Amino acid sequence: MRSLLTRILVTFGVALAAGTLVMFWVSAQLSRTMVSGLFHGMERMQLQQAQSAYETGGAPALRSYLTGLDGMMKGKRLLLDASGRDLLTGVRYAELAALPTADDAPPQRHHGELVIVRQSPDGRYRFVITALPPIPISTFFPYFAIAIFLAVVPGIWLSLGIVRPIRELSTVMNRFGSGQLQARAEPSRRDEIGDSARAFNTMAGRISTLMVAERRLLQDVSHELRSPLARLGFAAELMRTSPDPDAALARMKREITRLSQLVGTLLEMTSAEGDPATHRMVPVELGNLLQEVVEDCALEAAARHVLLRSRLDSPQTLPGDPELLRRCVENVLRNAIRYAPENTEVTVEADGTEHAVHLAVRDCGPGVPEQMLERIFDPFFRVEQSRDAAQGGVGLGLSIVRRVVQLHHGQIRARNAQPGLCIEITFPLAPGH
């Protein structure tokens, strides 16, 4: 039996049959201990009253008593003496007198009828009761059918309620396994099956994130490495044929350095887009983190003759990954310093509310065309397509920033500040908001 539904129905059928047998056994035990005792008591009472009626009023009193009993209760009753003679008709029933008379003696067959014989305590009388014929088992069939129907229908409904969502979840798993990475279950239930569906959705989301990040990395690497490798090949050929091999060697070293920077940035991007469960979420004092990043970037700003100003009014503690948050803020700040003209300033401002922390980094550079404000967060996007790694990086800094912000359930946007570009980031103080 490979089908879960078949197993459930067979198990339910066996349990129903076993329960029915147990019910019959319990009924028999109750009948033996309670009902039988009640009937035995009634039989003894009827014998005593019939004996008393005969001894006090003779045959007329006995006839009146037995006639009344036969009218109230089905069957026929006789009072015999010790020899088996009917005290009303005088007919001798020797065979009836010889039948067992104990209280626990079962009804005996006599001339096609079932009779019960009980003896008086003094042994002088035999009380004979013509027992009713046994009730045929077929009489109870309609009741059995109703009971089985009332048990089977809810059982089938319950079985289908278990099997159907499992089959649906299996179908979604097969779709996901066949390459449909967006396939998700609909966990509307609140039981263990719903928990399994939600667990699958979480697992599928993580696997999808990892696979998409891997595919994107391969595509980006294949796209971005073409030009540096071509220049590196040209430098190698130039080194072989050039009369000045030192200059060619210096060019080759520069290209190797750029390749190393590109690979490092790609790995950083992949780390930011990896499995969210692998990131270490701890309370981070944002004010201290921002102050450290500003101090680290101060030398670079001074080398470019840019004044770095900061206003950090946010004492809030943010739940997040400290290293990713540091990369996020540092990338935004270094990007602003890179494009800020000499003798201008870059401002870093942070303030908070009861529910969120707001961070703004602004430079006084040329800004970005309005139609490109959203695209600057895309991987490898450059406002000036001719700009190379030496001029403006590989185009991954702000993409990494956006991914880190998303991992912390925050929001990021860019706007032209007239002059310059302002990057605004909002982090919620509670995860998942």
Compile the SSE list and pairings.
Elements: H1 4-72, E1 77-81, H2 94-97, E2 108-110, E3 113-119, E4 125-131, H3 141-177, H4 192-224, H5 226-241, H6 245-272, E5 282-285, H7 286-303, E6 307-312, E7 317-320, H8 322-339, E8 345-352, E9 356-362, H9 389-392, H10 397-407, E10 411-416, E11 421-428
Parallel strand pairs: 6-8
Antiparallel strand pairs: 1-4, 2-3, 3-4, 5-7, 8-9, 9-11, 10-11
Helix pairs in contact: 1-3, 3-4, 4-6, 5-6, 6-10, 7-8, 8-10
Structure commentary:
By secondary structure, the protein is of the alpha+beta class. It folds into three domains: 4-134, Beta-Lactamase (2-Layer Sandwich); 155-224; 280-428, 2-Layer Sandwich (Heat Shock Protein 90), CATH 3.30.565. It contains ten helices and eleven strands. The chain has helices spanning 4-72, 94-97, 141-177, 192-224, 226-241, 245-272, 286-303, 322-339, 389-392, 397-407, and strands at residues 77-81, 108-110, 113-119, 125-131, 282-285, 307-312, 317-320, 345-352, 356-362, 411-416, 421-428. The strands form three sheets. A five-stranded mixed sheet has the order 6-8-9-11-10, with helices on one face. Strand 3 (113-119) and strand 4 form a beta hairpin. Helix 5 (226-241) runs antiparallel to helix 6, helix 7 runs parallel beside helix 8 (322-339) and helix 8 runs antiparallel to helix 10 (397-407). It is rod-shaped and about 150 Å long. 21% of the residues are buried. The model is unreliable at 385-392 (pLDDT under 50).
